[in-house]
Amino acid sequence: MSSMSSLRSIVLGCVSDRGPQPSSQSHSSKRLTNAPYEWPGACRVKFGVVLADALKDDTLPEPLVEILVYLAREGVTTADLFRRPGNSTDLKAIMKRLSEGREIQLGNYNFYTLASVIKKFLLKIPGGMFGPEIELQLLQVLEVENRLQQHKDIHSIISNLSPVVQKLMTLLFGTWFRIVSHSEYNTMSSESVAKSVAGSLFHTCADDPVKVDRAVHILQILIDDFAIGKMFGHRNLQYFTEMTRTGINVREKFRFELNLPEKKSMSEYRQQCCNP
Known about the structure:
Layout: H1 3-12, H2 27-34, H3 51-54, H4 62-75, H5 88-99, H6 111-123, H7 131-140, H8 147-159, H9 163-181, H10 183-186, H11 190-201, H12 209-224, H13 229-232, H14 234-244, E1 248-250, E2 254-256, H15 266-274
Antiparallel strand pairs: 1-2
């Protein structure tokens, strides 16, 4: 089985909520797909709660991790991803299932709807993922003219975040970096991605056009320069490559690439997703 097929079996292996699976699946994939399963309580997605409760016990909600991994692996060539809205009916259904701890079949929904789930999760966090203080610190980075110093200042801000928030931030910006890296297919620039997600991330800027422009600017830096280790940190970059099983071009004359085994048990994958 190819690494991509293996990933699909791991990510998508669950009871389908919207119908049977294609007949081309292997016997083992069908067994996983048809097995009844509910997410552990700690991995349920909590919408509309403060970040500390959404990431309870310093744990990333596994369904969000799987959605981001799926988008980073298979959705990056999709035009207008994170800019075009998804199906509103499916969005509500997915959010309901995830909040109840029920698994979804990712392959049964379009990429736009899955991206909308991520945006909705971020938008509904009271105070936002960063909070007013961190948002202000990030915006103040724009007052520094030297790009290398900007990277250092951003690294200092990121390093002071909790490890689980760093991982969430890494998965988000790594996915957006990969989208921009495939702009020849999806026509998405860092500016267009930043404009599409700024409102979900920078809550203090929502009612001020000038602040929105500044938020877009700092997000462009975070997206364009994601692969620079001195900004996001080498450990966070390695986490992204391990979780998504992708390589990212790092502009410091080296490349993170991991030769991971093709097959990985569901329990190992779930443990890696849920543990900080």
